[in-house]
Amino acid sequence: MKTEKHFRNVSIMLMGCTLIALLSLVLTAHGQEPGASLLAPGAKVKKLAGDFSFTEGPADDGKGNIYFTDIPNNRIHKWSRDGKLSTFLEGSEAANGLIFDENGKLLACRHGSRSVVSIDMNRTITTLADEYRGKKLNSPNDLWIDPSGGIYFTDPRYGNRDNLEQDGEHVYYLSPDQASLSRVIDDFVRPNGIIGTPDGKTIYVADNGANMTYSYRIGAGGSLSGKREFAPVGSDGVALDEKGNLYLTGDAVVIYSPRGRLLEKIEVPERPSNVCFGGKDGKTLFITARTSLYSVRMTVGAAKRLAYAFNSR
């Protein structure tokens, strides 16, 4: 005969199982299975190359090759998909953030010339923006291209501030036809990392000066609205994976779910500056960190890879 104590123990066990199941449902609803890691099983952060001065701006060309900058040495380097390092461009004018457009051109934010430029594979450089309302930009830092071809870029100023012509550190939008430049954020302390979702509906912008990352709704003509505090950290560089998780850089690489919940932290031997996905299958996270380039294998890839690259394989 089952005793009252037996039934009480069974009830407690059932309640415990129910609570565990509910917790699992809550975690799964926020974008990740409980206890699951976005890193590939057994993955470790690996140093690929070193002896740089300050690495930044990693960008995937869509074929698995990664281009990145060494700002003080005025170089843009290439890390090939088969693991070879080369110099793509000397005299880069202290290029920082990079991104490839759908035509295979490399867009760069250049501190030296205080401009955003386009660089083709023959190394022909075309200036896209270098002033706003007749005054020189500060030091364009990071950029993102929306689905229509418009370019958002941040314009902070680090270092010498004696020759500033703008009235602050802001975020701009260059129209798809490159005919007009508009200021879309004017209340940041020091904007830095920037990226948007592939559907062109949401953009994330880090304010390093306020130690905060915000999200906005993207509207007509590149306008932004609905400013919302997304994560209580600033970031030098940012990336998005295919699940909509946001990767931010600071003391480490930290990953936030689309709802702003901290999911994971990736420790790096040096302080990371920027991140991007690349490699043969797009599931390697490349990390620029001070004097080196690092990588780590992931279970996810980038939110989007370049269409032209797939067409040219």
Task: Provide structural commentary.
The chain has 313 residues and is mainly beta. It has one domain: Neuraminidase. It is 10% helix and 41% strand. It is built from two helices and 26 strands. The protein has helices spanning 4-29, 307-311, and strands at residues 46-49, 55-60, 66-70, 75-79, 85-90, 95-100, 106-110, 115-119, 125-129, 131-132, 135-136, 143-145, 151-155, 170-174, 181-185, 191-196, 202-207, 212-218, 224-231, 238-240, 246-249, 253-256, 262-266, 274-278, 284-289, 292-297. It has a four-stranded antiparallel sheet with strand order 1-26-25-24, with no helix packed on it. Strand 2 (55-60) and strand 3 form a beta hairpin. It is globular. It starts with a helix and ends with a helix. Mean pLDDT is 90; it is low at 9-33 and 308-313.
Topology:
Elements lengths: L3 H26 L16 E4 L5 E6 L5 E5 L4 E5 L5 E6 L4 E6 L5 E5 L4 E5 L5 E5 L1 E2 L2 E2 L6 E3 L5 E5 L14 E5 L6 E5 L5 E6 L5 E6 L4 E7 L5 E8 L6 E3 L5 E4 L3 E4 L5 E5 L7 E5 L5 E6 L2 E6 L9 H5 L2
Antiparallel strand pairs: 1-26, 2-3, 3-4, 4-5, 6-7, 7-8, 8-9, 10-11, 12-13, 13-14, 14-15, 16-17, 17-18, 18-19, 20-21, 21-22, 22-23, 24-25, 25-26
Radius of gyration using CA atoms only: 22 Å
- CATH architecture term: 6 Propeller
Mean pLDDT: 90
Report low-confidence residues grouped into runs of 5 or more. Answer: 9-33, 308-313
**Main sheet specs:** 4 strands, antiparallel
In CATH terms, the superfamily is TolB, C-terminal domain
Under CATH, the topology can be stated as Neuraminidase
Please report the distance between the alpha carbons of the first and last residues: 72 Å
The CATH class assignment is Mainly Beta
Q: Tell me how many strands there are.
A: 26
Task: State the domain count.
Answer: 1
- In N-to-C order, the SSE pattern is HEEEEEEEEEEEEEEEEEEEEEEEEEEH
Outline type: globular
